[in-house]
Amino acid sequence: MTNEDFTSENFKANLKLAVSYYPSISEMCRKLGINRQQFMKYLSGRSFPTRYNLRRICDFFGVDEYEILMPHDQFGNIIRLRPTHTRDDLQVPPGVASVIKETQRHRNTLTKMHGYYYEYYLSFTTPGHILRALTYVYGWKDFTMYKRIERLNHIDQKGRPDVHKYSGGISLVGDRVHLFDTETITGAELTQKVLYPNYRNRISMLSGLILGVSAGDTHEPSASRVLLEYIGRTTHVKQALSQCGLFPISSMQISRSVAFHLTSAGEFEQPLRATTFDANFRL
């Protein structure tokens, strides 16, 4: 991709797409602190924002400056994975606020994580299988956020897969990377991951644990080892998603080193599951 691919025409088309996710241009301009009349000139292509205003616009939509100048189809893949509304008036208790401030303080360190990943863990719902999902880590204002998309079907299964989308944030606390996300449609599922940070200049694989619940009616608390395989700062999202799904642990489409790590060299083939306590049980 050359510099000629990043044009003001792309900016106009991409800005229109980003704005389409918001119900009110006037309210958006108020939050941005940009005159509505001036903003409409940006939308029509009659004017291009100053570097300062461009930075404010990009921060608001959660994109980088080079991304909003990308070819329109590539920008469309990115903006669909971003949150569409902000809640600047959200009130949080002091304990949570301190965690948020800690996240902001480590922004530069977490920036190294930005990009796309294949995420692997033992399926909470289908024993003997590994789930490969697509995760996208990006910056939004002073925070590091991420989106995760799961396709719950066998990779060779015909028909439309069940697709689940998750959105969350990332924090660096106690020399460990903590990720929290929620299912975006119903909000009825919360997942947590704790990862070892990357100490090298280039990220290849991040490892840790994932804790969540199984699908279906049981909602069993479950945990598994998890791996995040870095695939690039940018990627062809549709193509990457086509590689996601459920795979038997023995599948050749899953790296043997990945399967070896997740199963602890074949010691177990399903996640750890919680059970309810039986107060009447006696040895």
Provide a descriptive summary of the structure in words.
InterPro entries: Cro/C1-type_HTH, Lambda_DNA-bd_dom_sf. This is Helix-turn-helix transcriptional regulator. GO terms for molecular function: DNA binding. This protein is an alpha+beta fold and 283 residues long. The protein has two domains: 3-79, Orthogonal Bundle (434 Repressor (Amino-terminal Domain)); 107-273, Lipocalin, CATH 2.40.128. Helix content is 29%, strand content 29%. It has ten helices and ten strands. The model has no long low-confidence stretch (mean pLDDT 84).
Domain count: 2
Per CATH, the architecture of the largest domain is Beta Barrel
What is the structural class? alpha+beta
User: Total number of β-strand segments?
Assistant: 10
Spatial strand order of the main sheet: 1-2-3-4-5-6-7-8
Helix-residue proportion: 25-40%
Give the terminus-to-terminus CA distance: 68 Å
Output the radius of gyration: 21 Å
Spans where pLDDT lies below 50 across 5 or more residues: none
- What's the overall geometry? globular
Order of helices and strands: HHHHHHHHEEEEEEEEHEHE
According to CATH, the fold-level topology of the largest domain is: Lipocalin
